[in-house]
Amino acid sequence: MNLFDDICHSLTEEETLPLLTSGNVRIERIVSTGQASAPGFWYDQQEHEWVVVLRGRGIIEYEDGEQVSLSPGDHLHIPAGVRHRVRETSRDEPTVWLAVFWRDQAD
Q1: How far lies 70's CA from each of 12, 48, 56, 75, in Å?
Q2: Of 25, 87, 93, 96, which alpha carbon lies 20 to 30 A from 58's?
Q3: Closest-CA residue to 29 (of 103, 104, 106, 100)
């Protein structure tokens, strides 16, 4: 499978495709077409997340107001328990994310 296969250019919701789950690690391809987190919604995960933008662009916002803009090749580590949201994704082309989630061994 190629990470760019079967990418829809118009989605009503983000599309998540699980690529690998093994032990305490999960890898997903996420496709966004202008989606953002709902106002007031915050991810508050028990897993760490490392995400890279492969195509398009996105903005991750933290609860403290910090925003990180991501373009192709940019990556970000979000530690477990850090509240964050997707503030924006590109509307002119799909944003393709590769996300790796994991739990500490003690969990």
Answers
A1: 22, 18, 9, 7
A2: 25
A3: 100
Q: Which CATH number fits domain 15-102: 3.60.15.10, 2.60.120.10, 1.10.760.10, 3.50.50.60?
A: 2.60.120.10
- Contact (CB, 8 A) for 87 and 36: yes
Kindly list the distances between the CA atom of residue 94 and the CA atoms of 15, 64, 65, 68, 79, in Å, as whole numbers in the listed order. 11, 28, 25, 18, 26
- pLDDT (tens digit per residue) in 33-59: 999 999 999 999 999 999 999 999 999
